[in-house]
């Protein structure tokens, strides 16, 4: 893995889903992206705004299960290049004061992964606590 220059990235600060104050971050290689990957980001940004599949991981710092869930999601996206291009993946830090509503909803349940097709009302699937790579992929594939 390239450990050279790394850029923290945050995408789409103008489109605040679920909660207007929700901080959205895209996870690429544990919240960072190598300079080598910057070229592909341009294409990803174009697809970002047209994607219907939304993956939202509710998490917080100092949470072992959350760290494992982030690793699982990183592997899922890395191993499924088409998914990485077509899905919008965000991480919501429920400890952020701006995300108080999410903290009240999920403070005892994190990590929680929301899988949603924004074109189909009522399509929200939730995975709580322990994320399994195969289970996540199967649930995502159920939206195709």
From TrEMBL:
InterPro entries, from UniProt? Glutaredoxin-like (IPR008554), Glutaredoxin-like_YDR286C (IPR052565), Thioredoxin-like_sf (IPR036249)
Alphabetical keyword list: Electron transport, Transport
Can you tell me which family this protein belongs to? Belongs to the glutaredoxin family.
What's the protein here called?
Glutaredoxin-like protein
In its UniProt entry, the species of origin is given as Torulaspora globosa
- What is the taxonomic lineage of the source species? Eukaryota, Fungi, Dikarya, Ascomycota, Saccharomycotina
């Amino acid at each position: 893995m390239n450990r050279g220059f790394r850029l923290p990235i945050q995408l789409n600060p103008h489109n605040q889903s679920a909660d207007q104050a929700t901080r959205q971050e895209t996870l690429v290689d544990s919240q960072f992206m190598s300079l080598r990957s910057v070229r592909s980001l341009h294409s990803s940004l174009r697809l970002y705004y047209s994607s219907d599949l939304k993956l939202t991981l509710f998490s917080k710092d100092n949470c072992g299960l959350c760290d494992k869930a982030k690793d699982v999601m990183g592997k899922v996206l890395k191993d499924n290049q088409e998914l990485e291009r077509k899905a919008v993946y965000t991480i919501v830090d429920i400890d952020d004061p701006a995300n108080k509503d999410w903290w009240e909803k999920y403070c005892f349940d994190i990590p929680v992964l929301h899988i949603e097709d924004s074109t189909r009302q009522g399509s929200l699937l939730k995975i709580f606590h322990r994320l399994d790579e195969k289970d996540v992929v199967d649930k995502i594939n159920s939206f195709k």
